[in-house]
Amino acid sequence: xxxxxxxxxxxxxxxxxxxxxxxxxxxxxxxxxxxxxxxxxxxxxxxxxxxxxxxxxxxxxxxxxxxxxxxxxxxxxxxxxxxxxxxxxxxxxxxxxxxxxxxxxxxxxxxxxxxxxxxxxxxxxxxxxxxxxxxxxxxxxxxxxxxxxxxxxxxxxxxxxxxxxxxxxxxxxx
Amino acid sequence: xxxxxxxxxxxxxxxxxxxxxxxxxxxxxxxxxxxxxxxxxxxxxxxxxxxxxxxxxxxxxxxxxxxxxxxxxxxxxxxxxxxxxxxxxxxxxxxxxxxxxxxxxxxxxxxxxxxxxxxxxxxxxxxxxxxxxxxxxxxxxxxxxxxxxxxxxxxxxxxxxxxxxxxxxxxxxxxxxxxxxxxxxxxxxxxxxxxxxxxxxxxxxxxxxxxxxxxxxxxxxxxxxxxxxxxxxxxxxxxxxxxxxxxxxxxxxxxxxxxxxxxxxxxxx
Lengths: 174, 269
Known about the structure:
Chain A is mainly alpha-helical.
């Protein structure tokens, strides 16, 4: 939906940055909600809601006071990337902390966490330095654009694969 | 910062962070694999230890029963036989009809005692059970129970008789013995059926009675160790034990044991 809205805004208003500014906040909220259910400690203390709440405040503050709708919200993306990678690392820690016989390669939450972490690790610097590169080094900005496109496609494909294999994984885990 | 270095820096930074992410993922996978292996080994060790403890306990029980069996046979049995010989000697000198009648009654009682002692001794002696075999021993146990005329016992054999290892047969017999003992003591049943089904890969022993039955939930509350012994022996057989019962609906105990690799004894008759 985010991508379609962005396409529509780009065609109609020649600026889809507002869509991405809002979309990124919503995306971060969804990520936090997901981890709030998949990580036991988060579920117990509702940590996901708190991080999501901080994300919303920071995202809105960034739009109003810092970067607005005419720039890529790189400050928020920096925060989102760092938070997501941090939460992923914590999710791994909890997976290892549990002393149950869990076969990770058949555990959907491991794959979701892995996809999110790899996606944000690759895209982290691209988003964070997007404004800087696009202004100071216009000729090479296509590299950043292509890499973002490529990593996004890979990310969505991977998530789809996990969803397709989800019933099989659950059966194998019984 | 020199702009010429920006893109290479960006790329190398991205590659480094991505490599770090991959390293973390691989580390988590390997570490979890190690953890699983450790837990598997630990579970195997615990299982092994429990099995050894169980085997030792049951062996100890068998040894105690053997000892009791020998004592009964050598002491009680011998003394009862001596008493019978003495009675026979007295009978030779008895002239009075009343005396002869009393001696005859005493002899009958002694015969009963000798038979009972023999039966009890046999049912406790593991070597005897191993020698005589499961079916014969169960038949003997049921014949002994039939003598009481309070319960009608039957045994049915389905399929070709499979000869288990003597130790295995002893365990199966002890489970059946415990079940039969429970039926005679608590069930107030008028009928007891034992079905031994020798299927291609499994042996199924079903013991059914038409007694007063019980709530299955009270199994855990029972203070006796009878059911516990049955369950532990089933564990040693690597089998499964199912107990079905309801108040006033009797009880059905099903033992299922894998008989793959056992020797088949076909009845030629």
